[in-house]
UniProtKB/TrEMBL annotation:
One of its GO terms (molecular function) is ligase activity. SUPFAM superfamilies: Acetyl-CoA synthetase-like (SSF56801). Residues 509-588 form the AMP-binding enzyme C-terminal domain. Keywords: Ligase. Residues 65-445 form the AMP-dependent synthetase/ligase domain. It comes from the Bacteria. Belongs to the ATP-dependent AMP-binding enzyme family. The lineage of its organism: Bacteria, Pseudomonadati, Bacteroidota, Cytophagia, Cytophagales. This is AMP-dependent synthetase and ligase. Residues 3-55 form the Acetyl-coenzyme A synthetase N-terminal domain. It comes from Emticicia oligotrophica (strain DSM 17448 / CIP 109782 / MTCC 6937 / GPTSA100-15). Pfam families: ACAS_N, AMP-binding, AMP-binding_C.
């Protein structure tokens, strides 16, 4: 297959292209319009179509005679157990959970928050919501109660599904106290919480609100699939924006199903029945798309892994899972491989396993740094394919489309735009930039199926965050360039978002939290380089006049504050006291310059800086504290 002609067809005639792809899924009623605009003028895919995403993921395969095929392998390195579920068994589990939700009053269009660790019931609960046409909103288990509360207030779920605990290496993390605290903090109060009791930790169920998950599900009658419109929401997934209020990314049913199905063949080069493993968490978009929906819609076997790349029990775990389940395509974040490389740099542990089933490794979630890419190429001896995408898109925007035409890999590039994405680099005034010129990475509208049609209950923010900067384009928030051969290089965010161990976090939100400390007059939080996590946040703090507090004490309090409000995953470990922050004469904090200074990158001193000497002061602080390039 030829990439150029396939891609061009998708850009020149998107309706014909996606009409053909939409024929590959089992609609209850075919769409009447392939591409249209809604009352807000936002693009919508497949209006008039009716389907059910749970039906496509489960029942359809059973009807096609594949009921006994293994659909999901729960491999828990954290608890040392493996459970395999066939499509028939998943249907049984999911329709009973859907029945339980229905008994609690959940109907089509209602929201359900899922706050669970990596247990298969998390995936089954997502599918159960989809079965009823209810909208799930999964919240990553590593988020603190404050973050969960913000999401509860925005999603307004009548039911929350949770579990008694998660497992982080050898630590048991009780979820119920976090859930209770979140409900206490939230203004909106859910009617019921279904709590899955895990054997390693018992949650206290109190009052009428808390219900034992297993008992309720056992007593329920299985529920059938409820037809929904293609444009109805399947889920809302909150992601970090530039402020303390996360953005509720809406995913519709029709566009999502078509794009998921398309991506499995053309990006990942898989066939139904192949074993596919995305080592991520259901709390992130990778987990939604590639642990749950895409592999099941396409009829693959998905590996659902609870554990870490290292220490569960060792840095050979990934190779063990690939061998044990004969994984064909594996997908994870580069951070995971940096962790393995640190513990087992010569990949000695890999020698214990037969990984010959593995054809390709995909990475995403953060920039894949060339040293990690090269190390992985050497030890894995299969193509390592970096691909770039976002919660907003739900699938790859730039990739080496392995099912279309494989291009040579260039380190630092995710290769070429995926079908449907007209990726362009624009300058500050919206002008199109030429080859190798760095600017804003944008996508010319319309976005292809599966991309967010809007933000949950916030059309204005959708416009202001993504559409208003350059008319006719979607602003991705990333900076980068395209070389003369059409390879796209993503150079990092141009806004206040950072990526810590593949987790997308807002430095703007961290600044709001640090700034709320009573001793702090003003502050800046920037993402600095971290060998393992890619980036980590660093706080620079100016004290209020007359306040006396040591740097050590303040740092400790701020670390606790961020941990309590966002969660340990933020990995906020350093707050530095400075007399002033470097600013332009108009008062804009020079965050990029601070980051470049700390990371030891070349930078030109901005001509607009109000006082250059502040930079020397910051450098001295970093040297004293041995932070960044000065360690
Ligand atoms: N629930 C609760 N806490 C969590 C958590 C979760 N799901 N995930 C991480 N944390 C906690 C950790 O326990 C740690 O807490 P601590 O400060 O009390 O020790 C803290 O958050 C920082 O975690 P992390 O940055 O992940 O460091 P780590 O040393 O625990 O693990 C890696 C390092 C590289 C092994 C881990 O980050 C990893 O597996 N990364 C891959 C990420 C990934 O797959 N992302 C998916 C995006 S596609
Ligand atoms: P998330 O929405 O959590 O998936 O994070 C999306 C952001 O992660 C993107 O906007 C990028 O900044 C970054 N990102 C994801 N994948 C890649 C990649 N392959 N290369 C570079 N950055 C990436």
């Amino acid at each position: 297959m030829n990439y150029d002609s396939f891609y061009q067809k998708s850009i020149e005639n998107p309706e014909a292209f996606w009409a053909e792809q939409s024929d590959k899924i089992a609609w209850f009623k075919k769409p009447t319009q392939i591409l249209s605009t809604d009352k807000n003028g936002f693009y919508r895919w497949f209006a008039g179509g009716e389907l059910n995403t749970c039906y496509l993921s489960v029942d359809y395969h059973i009807e096609q005679g594949r009921g006994n095929q293994t659909a999901l392998i729960y491999d828990s390195a954290a608890t040392n157990s493996i459970i395999k579920y066939t499509y028939n068994e998943i249907k049984e589990e999911v329709s009973k959970i859907a029945g339980a939700l229905r008994d609690l009053g959940i109907e089509k269009g209602d929201t359900v928050v899922i706050y669970m660790p990596m247990v298969p019931e998390a995936a089954f609960s997502m599918l159960a919501c989809a079965r009823l046409g209810a909208v799930h909103s999964v919240v990553f288990g590593g988020f603190a109660p404050h973050e969960l509360a913000i999401r509860i207030d925005d999603a307004k779920p009548n039911v929350i599904i949770s579990a008694s605990c998660g497992i982080e290496f050898d630590k048991i993390i009780p979820y119920k106290p976090l859930l209770d605290e979140a409900i206490h903090l939230a203004e909106f109060k859910p009617k019921n919480c279904l709590v899955l009791q895990r054997p390693m930790c018992h949650a206290n169920l109190v009052g009428e609100r808390d219900i034992d998950f297993a008992t309720m599900v056992a007593q329920s009658k299985p529920a059938d699939c409820v037809p929904v419109d293609a444009t109805d929401p399947l889920y809302v997934l909150y992601t970090s924006g530039t402020t303390g209020k996360p953005k509720g990314i809406v995913r519709d049913n029709g566009g999502h199903a078509v794009a998921m199905n398309f991506s499995m063949k053309y990006i990942y080069d898989l066939n139904p029945k192949d074993v596919f493993w995305a080592a991520s968490d259901v709390g992130w978009v990778v987990g939604h798309s590639y642990i749950v929906y895409a592999p099941l819609i396409y009829g693959c076997t998905t590996v659902f892994f609870e554990g870490k790349p290292i220490k569960t029990p060792d840095a050979g775990t990934f190779w063990r899972v690939i061998d044990e389940h004969k994984v064909k395509v594996f997908f994870t974040a580069p951070t995971a491989f940096r962790a393995i490389k640190k513990e087992d740099s010569e990949a000695k542990l890999k020698e214990k396993y037969d990984t010959s089933s593995l054809k390709t490794i995909f990475v995403a979630g953060e920039r894949c740094d060339p040293p990690t890419l090269e190390w992985l190429q050497q030890i894995a001896q299969v193509p390592i394919i970096d691909h770039w995408w976002q919660t907003e898109s739900g699938w790859g925007i730039v990739a080496n489309m392995m099912g279309v035409e494989q291009f040579p890999v260039k380190a630092g590039s995710a290769t070429k735009p995926v079908c449907g994405f007209d990726v362009q680099i624009l300058g500050e005034n919206g002008q199109k930039l030429g080859p190798n010129e760095e600017g804003y990475v944008c996508i010319k509208l319309p976005l292809p199926p599966s991309c967010l049609p809007t933000l949950w209950n916030d059309d204005d923010r959708f416009r202001s965050s993504y559409l208003n900067k350059f008319e006719g384009y979607y602003l991705t928030g990333d900076g980068g360039y395209i070389d003369e051969e059409g390879y796209v290089f993503i150079m990092g965010r141009v806004d206040d978002v950072i990526n810590v161990a593949g987790h997308r976090l807002s430095t703007g939100e961290m600044e709001e939290i640090v700034g709320s400390h009573k001793a702090v007059a003003e502050c800046a939080v920037v993402g600095i380089a971290d060998e393992l996590r890619g980036q980590r946040p660093l706080g620079l703090v100016v004290l209020k006049d007359g306040i006396e507090i040591s740097e050590e004490v303040l740092e400790e309090q701020l670390i606790k504050l961020i941990r309590d409000q966002i969660g340990a995953v933020a990995f906020f470990r350093n707050a530095i006291l400075v007399k002033r922050l470097p600013k332009t004469r108009s008062g804009k904090i020079l965050r990029k310059t601070i980051r470049q200074l700390v990371d030891g990158e070349q930078f030109t001193i901005p001509s607009t800086i109000d006082d250059v000497s502040i930079l020397s002061e910051i450098e001295l602080c970093m040297r004293n504290r041995k932070i960044g390039v000065f360690q």
